[in-house]
Amino acid sequence: MTLNQLLDEGTERLSKAGVEEAALDARYLLLEAFHTDLTHFLIERNRELKAESQESVREFYRMLELRSARIPLQQITGSREFMGLNFFVNEHVLIPRQDTETLAEQVLMDYKGKYPRVLDLCTGSGCIAISLAKLGGFRSVVASDISAEALKVAQHNGEAILGKDKITFLLSDLFNAFRTDERFDVIVSNPPYIPTEVIRKLQPEVRDHEPMLALDGKEDGLYFYRRLAEESSKYLNPGGTVYFEIGYDQKEAVSKLLAEAGFTKIRSWCDAAWFDRVVSGVYEK
């Protein structure tokens, strides 16, 4: 058997299981199982596999079985790239999306050469907080989440990418665990924002295998934005700014919530697909 034949077999199995990008996922799993890259695969793909490759073959079949069960590719490989950095992920955290890079990129642009005190709420894997600390050189970053298991993942990523004790991690339901005198210059959040009823219609990879805690925005998807709009101003320095990731159809609703809570200079940005993805506001009082 050759690598090419293995890849064809894997693609067929994933396709029958209903995996949308069967060929691409099969290739990722093959490269992972054989600890190789695309260049070496292209060179070796038509050569007969050696006996010592059998362990890698078994690993490939094991991962195919998991992917056929619609377990997300990133949970199988245990990694996801975000902002050019490699993050460990598992079933306890939302898999970082490219859409979320829109938020991180805008904060980095707005605070280039500055050193704000940053708070990342609903941090999950820590991808936003860690990217800001690493790429922006922000020296004071706090990351919190309501999930203790998610915080373990975020702390692991923080130590792997930044080193130990570079970010403060805090178990908290939004602001509940914070002192009343704590203040930040920037508050960022990618909160749960999918309406409960919509979740059951999502792909099995998301609906069945990503944490409901990170997806469910309650009845209308705006539950956490209401809380964030109402509570964020108490923890901002004068002129502080909030940046929230939003669903593609939530710009007007979230902007209104911020305006009603006293925020001004409300702005929004689209992601690479031109969907509304980030809303920000400044609290000047």
UniProtKB/TrEMBL annotation:
<comment type="similarity">
    <text>Belongs to the protein N5-glutamine methyltransferase family. PrmC subfamily.</text>
</comment>
<dbReference type="InterPro" id="IPR029063">
    <property type="entry name" value="SAM-dependent_MTases_sf"/>
</dbReference>
<dbReference type="InterPro" id="IPR004556">
    <property type="entry name" value="HemK-like"/>
</dbReference>
<dbReference type="InterPro" id="IPR002052">
    <property type="entry name" value="DNA_methylase_N6_adenine_CS"/>
</dbReference>
<feature type="binding site">
    <location>
        <position position="190"/>
    </location>
    <ligand>
        <name>S-adenosyl-L-methionine</name>
    </ligand>
</feature>
<feature type="domain" description="Methyltransferase small">
    <location>
        <begin position="109"/>
        <end position="193"/>
    </location>
</feature>
<dbReference type="Pfam" id="PF05175">
    <property type="entry name" value="MTS"/>
</dbReference>
<keyword id="KW-0489">Methyltransferase</keyword>
<dbReference type="InterPro" id="IPR019874">
    <property type="entry name" value="RF_methyltr_PrmC"/>
</dbReference>
<protein>
    <recommendedName>
        <fullName>Release factor glutamine methyltransferase</fullName>
        <ecNumber>2.1.1.297</ecNumber>
    </recommendedName>
</protein>
<keyword id="KW-0808">Transferase</keyword>
<dbReference type="GO" id="GO:0102559">
    <property type="term" value="F:peptide chain release factor N(5)-glutamine methyltransferase activity"/>
</dbReference>
<dbReference type="InterPro" id="IPR050320">
    <property type="entry name" value="N5-glutamine_MTase"/>
</dbReference>
<feature type="binding site">
    <location>
        <position position="145"/>
    </location>
    <ligand>
        <name>S-adenosyl-L-methionine</name>
    </ligand>
</feature>
<dbReference type="GO" id="GO:0032259">
    <property type="term" value="P:methylation"/>
</dbReference>
<dbReference type="InterPro" id="IPR040758">
    <property type="entry name" value="PrmC_N"/>
</dbReference>
<keyword id="KW-0949">S-adenosyl-L-methionine</keyword>
<feature type="binding site">
    <location>
        <begin position="190"/>
        <end position="193"/>
    </location>
    <ligand>
        <name>substrate</name>
    </ligand>
</feature>
<dbReference type="InterPro" id="IPR007848">
    <property type="entry name" value="Small_mtfrase_dom"/>
</dbReference>
<dbReference type="Pfam" id="PF17827">
    <property type="entry name" value="PrmC_N"/>
</dbReference>
<feature type="domain" description="Release factor glutamine methyltransferase N-terminal">
    <location>
        <begin position="5"/>
        <end position="78"/>
    </location>
</feature>
<comment type="function">
    <text>Methylates the class 1 translation termination release factors RF1/PrfA and RF2/PrfB on the glutamine residue of the universally conserved GGQ motif.</text>
</comment>
